[in-house]
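Appendix B. One record, verbatim.
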Amino acid sequence: MKGQVYLGLWLLAGLAAGGALGQNAEPDAAAPANGKRPMTFEDMMRMRRLGDLAVSPDGKWVLFTVTDVDLGRNTRTPHLWTVPVAGGDEKALTDGATGESRGRFSPNGKQIAFLNGRGGSEQIWLADFDAASGTMGEPRQLTHISTEADNVTWSPDGKHLLFIRSAVRERAVQLSRARMRMPATGSAMRTWRSRR
């Protein structure tokens, strides 16, 4: 498993340097004739960001996110991609305007759960995955909760999806006139107290 993860990281590093993922950068018209010049902030922002790796249960596919940055609109939009662990061409699985992230294979490798912000809030979506071709079927929204979902993961038996639901937004509305306090213990847990 450790060797597979390292292989996946090397594959992704190679993809960032070339291939379809490297095609987002546009040539700079102000470049010297020899083509060499210092890298600028704009050059860095045109580079696609790779992250959030997940290896398929059969060890044949790497699922990852590719994030595009648009300086003009001040946005970052992630999408799901796959690449064979053995090498080969990467494939974009999603291309929604709001972006998709945190893709996770089901334990049997036949489905992918991921987050999508379509409709104004992050919700969990589910799509079938074809392990023979490395493609994804039509996604369908799984959750419809008033607060956003995050950190989606499968139970080991594949029968359940676990995720974090933020109650902060709901509770903040209820306590709009109350003061919120963090405990002095340094704990990551938040305590909500209402004082009148």
